[in-house]
Each structure stands twice: as structure tokens, then as C-alpha cells.
Amino acid sequence: MKLPRKHFRLFKSLSTRFMSKIIVALDGFSSCGKSTTAKRVAAQLHYAFVDTGAMYRAVALYLHRHHIAITDLQAVEEALKHMVIGFEINPSRQASDTLLNGENVEQEIRKMYISELVSQVAAITIVRRAMVAQQQKMGKKKGLVMDGRDIGTVVFPDAEVKIFMTAQPHIRAQRRKLELLQKGEDLPLEEIVENLRMRDEIDSNRAEGPLKRAADAIDLDTSFRSMDEQVEFVLAQVERVQREKR
Ligand code: DC
Predict the structure, then answer these.
(1) Which residues have CB under 6 Å of ligand 1?
(2) Reduced to 3 DSSP states, what percent helix, strand and coil does the chain have, rounded to the nearest 5?
(3) Protein residue whose Cα sits closest to atom 6 of ligand 1
(4) Distance CA 104, CA 88 (A)
(5) Mind listing the pLDDT tens digit for each residue in 141-197?
(6) Closest Cα to atom 1, ligand 1: which residue?
(7) What dotted CATH number matches 21-238?
(8) What is the per-residue burial (b if ≥16 Cβ within 10 Å, else e) of 154-183?
(9) Which ligand 1 atom is nearest residue 202's CA?
């Protein structure tokens, strides 16, 4: 019997819902569409979604506000004890906002001054270890889509699905410019290109948890794919793994 399309989608959604839960790790460069893809994949699967970049951004904001130099490791270590980073659902965006000690900092952490600072903060070993420990706790029950730089290599090396996302540098910069414009920041493209280049370099070359493709990751070049296609690509990998597990 052939199900009508509407019922087929419902059947598919219910069947994925009741399958054994897995971890989906999305890693890759900034502005490849990782978080948007991860969020939509999580919604389809009824999984939790964690944007780990937001966690490093929240730490950067805290250090900035408290005038803590990133070279003062003792002060950074002390500061980490006073930070509670969490997420809360924002129904108007149908996504979660980042909380720092109970304050909604979602808008602030996306600003350019944080983008300029965050890679250096994320390169600090004690910061990484604290964030990774929290992220691992979030994955204890599985049923999670997490995006970042080291999810498939360090945080969940046993994740069932690992995707490594890339896109051509000028396309990433254009996407980032649009994103910032939508948030009211109009910056020259060259400044954005330079920020992405600098972050790629710091993220890829740090000692602890560098941005690196896991050996068993599947590549996804998003340069010429629509968001729907990216989401479908990841969901197809999830379905393949679920089928193999059965
Ligand atoms: O994804 P994003 O651009 O919001 O990430 C902000 C910064 O945090 C980015 O420069 C790299 C860093 N990051 C990281 O080092 N490890 C992660 N798991 C996620 C982000």
C-alpha cells in the first residue's frame, strides 16, 4: 500500500522518534551553516540541539566584562567557577537563547567584538576542558545534535554520525555579512573576511581540541547547497545509521 505524502512524512517522523537515540556531531569552519543545519536536524528528530560556539562566546563575554586578560590564567580559572552557561527556548525564534548566569546574552555574544575575541578564549586549555566536560554531560542520554569544532574528535569521538562542513571562504564571508546585517551591524566585507581567516587559523592551530576533520567524518561542502539540502543530507546519514543499527 502506498501512503499519501502527508501520511508518509508523519510515519517517517514517528519512526525516527521511536528509534534508538544517537549523537550527531557537526563540525567545521565558521559560517558554513552548521548551527542552522544542526537546529533543523534536531527539530526533525525531536533531539536536543547544542551550539557549542555559543558557550565559548559566553565565556569571552564574561572575561571581557570583567576585564580579565586571557593571559592571566589564574584569573580565568577563577572566573570559570563563577560562570553558569545554559540555554532557554525562545518561542519567537523557535530556537534556544544562550544564558550567562541567568542573563539572556544571545544578542550580545553574536556581536563582532566577541567574534574578534572568542577564538583566543577558545584556545585556552582550561576553558576548553571546562566546556568539554559540560558538553559531555549534555550527551549522556544521547538524542543530541551538537555543532562545534571538536565534537567528533574530542567531545564525542564515538558519535554515530559525524559531519565535517566546509564552504568556500568568500561564500562564508557573504553569509556572515548578511547575518550581521540582519542583526543591525553593517561591516565591510574585508573586515569579515579577515575575521574568518584569523579565526580559522587560531581554531586550526591550537594545541587543545583544534578544528580538525575526524577520520571517520563525512564531508559536506555547503557552498552551493540550500539549507534544505544540507538538512536532508544530514538526515539521510542519520537514517543510514539507524538502518544499520536495526
Ligand atoms: O561557531 P562559532 O563561530 O559561534 O564559534 C565561536 C568560536 O568558538 C570559534 O572561533 C571557534 C570556537 N569554538 C571552538 O573552539 N570549539 C567549539 N566546539 C565551538 C566553537
Answers:
(1) 30, 52-53, 56-57, 118-119, 122, 148-150, 199, 203
(2) 55, 15, 30
(3) 53
(4) 8
(5) 999 999 999 999 999 999 999 999 999 999 999 999 999 999 899 999 999 999 999
(6) 53
(7) 3.40.50.300
(8) bbbeebbbbbbbebeeebbbbbbbeebeee
(9) 10
